[in-house]
Structure formats: structure tokens, C-alpha cells
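stage 2 :: seqdesign
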């Protein structure tokens, strides 16, 4: 485990170095890391909504959506909608709301929630109705995959947002609402917060 932690720490530091180098706006050697050229940041992956792209989008579209603005991706949106309708068998209202929430690959936070003591994945989108903070973002112990699966295959939206999904479509697939791996809890070790293998 010690080797894994040291490897991950090294990888994290290397990523930070690359990130700092990539934030420049020219191709001259960087001042933070002499000899490292700076350049224009190039997005190569989206992962704010775990399991959404991987589970709902056709594989051939992944590279294109990885390079698209996370808040405006018609390909991912069309794929989520198609998946909800044709694979999950959800009704039009549930499909529309799930598509609007899940195809925006961003972490949404509500900075007015000053009393919040922790982040909560989908906290803003569900107005805290899942029994968690309204702040949004994502806490280290959030089981984000199960929350996404609950939107896709469960009655999460009807429970959490009856103002948007007033009628339960009764087309849930309860056995698909979890990956059967709990949140890695507690994440109380030092950075990079690596827990023992599951």
C-alpha cells in the first residue's frame, strides 16, 4: 500500500506540474518550472458526472464529447436522452429532466449556502432533497455513481424534484440503481486520500 500511495502522490505532483505548465499562454519556457514549455490548456476528458458518459454514450462519441464544452454538448445530451428512452425505458418528463441534469458535465455549487459544512453531489440539482447539503459540488465520501444511477434507473428525480417530475413513471429498475460498491469511507488519510483497496 505504501508503494501505491507514493506512486499516486508522485503522479499527482507530476499532474500539478503539467497543469501549471499548461496554463500559460505562449510556448516559451515556464517560470514556475524552468525548461518546461507552457502552452494552451487542452481539455482531454470530462468526468464531473461519473458513469454518465461511460454508461449512456456510444463509444465512438467519447473523444468528441471529451473535447466539447461541458455545459454545451449536444452529442452527450442526445445520447443521454436516447439511453433514457430506449434503454432505461423512462417517460418523456423523467428523460428530459435527467438529460438536462446529467448532460451538463459540471460541478454545480450554490455559494449562498454559507451554512453548509460539506459538499453534496447533486445537492443543488435536487435542492438538498436527497437528505444532504444544498451546497452542491462533491464531498470526498459522496457515492456519485450510485446517485447518477438513481437518476437513470431509480425514482430519485420524482422524490427529489416533484416540481419537475411530478409523476413517478413506474419504470424504475431497482437492481441497477447501485454499483454495489459503497462510498470509500472515511477518506481521512493524507493527500491523495487513498483508502485501502476494496
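stage 2 :: out
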Amino acid at each position: 500500500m505504501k508503494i501505491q500511495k507514493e506512486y499516486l502522490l508522485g503522479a499527482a505532483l507530476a499532474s500539478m506540474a503539467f497543469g501549471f505548465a499548461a496554463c500559460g499562454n505562449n510556448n516559451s519556457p515556464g517560470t514556475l518550472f524552468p525548461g518546461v514549455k507552457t502552452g494552451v490548456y487542452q481539455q482531454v476528458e470530462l468526468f464531473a458526472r461519473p458513469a454518465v458518459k461511460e454508461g449512456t454514450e456510444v463509444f465512438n462519441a467519447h473523444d468528441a464529447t471529451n473535447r466539447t464544452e461541458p455545459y454545451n454538448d449536444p452529442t452527450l445530451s442526445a445520447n443521454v436522452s436516447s439511453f433514457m428512452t430506449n434503454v432505461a425505458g423512462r417517460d418523456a418528463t423523467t428523460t428530459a429532466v435527467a438529460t438536462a441534469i446529467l448532460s451538463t458535465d459540471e460541478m454545480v455549487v450554490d455559494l449562498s449556502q454559507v451554512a453548509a459544512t460539506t459538499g453534496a453531489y447533486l445537492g443543488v440539482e435536487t435542492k438538498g432533497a436527497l437528505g444532504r447539503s444544498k451546497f452542491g459540488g462533491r464531498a470526498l465520501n459522496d457515492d456519485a455513481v450510485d446517485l447518477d444511477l438513481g437518476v437513470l434507473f431509480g425514482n430519485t428525480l420524482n422524490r427529489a424534484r416533484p416540481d419537475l417530475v411530478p409523476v413517478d413513471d413506474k419504470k424504475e429498475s431497482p437492481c441497477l440503481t447501485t454499483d454495489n460498491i459503497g462510498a470509500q469511507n472515511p477518506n481521512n488519510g493524507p493527500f491523495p486520500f487513498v483508502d485501502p483497496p476494496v
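stage 3 :: structure notes
- The helical segments are 2-22, 52-56, 62-66, 74-87, 92-102, 144-153, 156-160.
- The mean pLDDT is 79.
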